[in-house]
Here is the input.
Amino acid sequence: MKYLWAVQIETAAEAADTEVEETLYWYLTELGLPFVERELVGGRMQLRGYLAGETQAAVLEAWRTHVEQQMGGAIRIDWQPTAIQDWQAAWQKHWQPIPVGERLVIWPRWLANPPRDRLVIPLDPGMAFGTGEHATTRLCLRALEAEPQLGRFADIGCGCGVLTVAALLLGAESGWAVDIDPIATAATLANLELNRLSDRATVLTGSAGVLQGPVDGTVSNILAEVVIDLAPEYARLVRPGGWGIFSGLLVTQADRVSEALSKQGFQLGQRLEEGGWSCLTGHFTGKSAGS
Here is the structure.
């Protein structure tokens, strides 16, 4: 029977929506977990996700030692094997429809009778990030909904493809979706097919460097440090006057990210916030700072 490693980090609930949570989330994604869920229970915060069963236990042990050395004794890390079908069944039971913004609703593909008064995004997340459970995904969806001319876009760090699908359903002409994780790009391809949008998007495994511009805009729901590192790539890809939507950021990190983007000609328009998380929206002028 095929199985996955169920990996969990537990710490005090006070760490929720702080840089501690962001750092722990980073360590989990660096390990290779494409989707991380959070649960607050009994005064504790639990971050958990699933890793390929082929991963050697020695790799997990070395990773745990490194994280504990960096974070101190305030965390507990463990893992156990879980059957793939058990994980899928538990996830499907847990995941419910998620209304977002004025018009959108993320709808699990296995549920019947979707609503008629909202734009429905049927989705099967697989193991990839971006189901709408996290505030940053919802913030990006709200920002996409508010952008009047989406045109041709790039979704950098596409996860399961929810933002790519949403942009196309909201009227974008075409899109590119990239992610460094092949599990994520496979999930994006599947969700594009589920929504009959495969002919309007190109999906690639890699980062922003695999794309050629210009595009009319970009959306990127990844970690703050990655957004900062990719700021020159965003400016290279997006045409002057084009839009940008950036999340995966804590409110406490937003000013630093905005500063890095502004050096590449990004003019901040609106900052959206939810539950300690932030989303930056605005447009690129085509002129970097000092030019």
Notes: The two ends are 59 Å apart (CA to CA). The longest strand covers residues 238-250. Residues 57-71 form the longest helix (15 residues).
